[in-house]
Amino acid sequence: MSDIPLPFDAVVTRLRAAGCVFAEDEAALLLEAADSPAELERMLALRVDGLPLEHILGWAEFAGLRIAVDPGVFVPRRRTELLVKESVRLVHPGAVVLDLCCGSAAVGAAIAAATRAAVDDDTPRPAPNGPATAPTAAGAESVTVYAADIDPAAARSARRNLPDPAHVFEGDLYASLPHDLRGRIDILVVNAPYVPSDAIATMPPEARLHEARLALDGGDDGLDVQRRVITDAPGWLSATGHLLIETSEAQAPGTAALFTAAGLSPRIVHDDDLDATVVIGARRPA
Ligand SMILES: C[S@@+](CC[C@H](N)C(=O)[O-])C[C@H]1O[C@@H](n2cnc3c(N)ncnc32)[C@H](O)[C@@H]1O
Distance between CA 143 and CA 96 in Å, rounded? Predict the structure, then answer.
């Protein structure tokens, strides 16, 4: 293997030939990440082979944070920043937050960072590609974030992304959570799998081939996991707690109907720029 580094343009050309739309950006990141020409070649070969850039780098940028993402773990999507934004609007100091179906816990980490920065004006928001969580400020942590996922690889990534001590649980939905969390969750924030099983075949190969099927497949109508999350949510929410679930624009009425059936009042929030949809609900007044 040559010791002469590949020039930027050559890296761009190879990435472009492999169909990478953001070839210049990706080339810059790969050149920055590679310790040696051999390492760059290895990374380039993986990328040309279709591995998601984030799995090669070991991190994804999300809500201004650098989120660790291990191989196979769902890469947090830009659209999910709407879930963070809406959660931060509802959160209060001392709130208990649960990031359920957390994957890398990008959502929980971003809520923790945003609320901590708001609590302590001296705490700078992490710069893009900065540390995974906001620097520990002198001020107390403003919220406590719990996270849970059924996939051990996701739980491992989540432990790296949440502030210490990371409260990450591994199991089916609520099954692994401490019982004393019941009735105490102020923000129950969920991006569960919601792709209908039949639509998985139409997803880009990066997702279809390199993210766990468990992270994508929402069953026949895409709502199987959401249905279970929503049905049990009222037992875990505090009296004034909110459930926030990402869904697609087309599935939002179905998601909202599940909220209503569970005794929660839903509203649908859509963001055109992010192409993102979130259903938010609180208990209906008695
Ligand atoms: C679409 S990914 C989203 C991950 C993360 N919330 C995010 O936005 O980046 C869905 C996640 O749900 C997890 N999951 C699927 N079924 C689950 C279950 N029954 N219990 C807990 N987690 C589950 C998957 O392992 C995956 O990490």
Answer: 6
Q: Whose CA is nearest to atom 1 of ligand 1?
A: 193
Q: Is 134 in the pocket of ligand 1 (CB under 6 A)?
A: no
CB 229 within 8 A of CB 190: yes
Q: Are 144 and 119 in contact (CB under 8 A)?
A: no
pLDDT at 2 over 70: no
For the chain, give percent helix, strand, coil, nearest 5.
Answer: 40, 20, 40
Please name every residue paired with 280 in a beta bridge, in sequence order, or none if there are none.
244, 267
- In this structure, the residue with its CA closest to atom 2 of ligand 1 is 215
108 Cβ contact partners less than 8 Å away, ≥ 6 residues apart: 97, 99, 102, 145, 146, 147, 158, 161, 162, 189
Q: HEC states along 195-210? A: ECHHHHHHCCHHHHHH
216 vs 75: CA distance, rounded Å:
11
Task: Please state, for a pLDDT cut of 70, what percent of the chain lies above it.
Answer: 90
pTM above 0.85, yes or no: yes
217 — alpha (psi -120 to 50), left (phi > 0) or beta?
A: beta
**CATH architecture for residues 63-283:** 3-Layer(aba) Sandwich (3.40)
Provide the residue ranges of all domains of the chain, joining segments of one domain with +: 8-49, 63-283
The verdict on the CB of residue 108 being under 6 Å from ligand 1 is: no
Quote the Cα angle for 146-64-84, to 5°.
Answer: 45
| Residue of 154, 43, 48 whose CA lies nearest to 106 | 154
Let me know the angle formed at the C-alpha of 164 by 163 and 168, rounded to the nearest 5 degrees: 80
List, for residues 41-70, the tens digit of each pLDDT value: 999 999 999 999 999 999 999 999 999 999
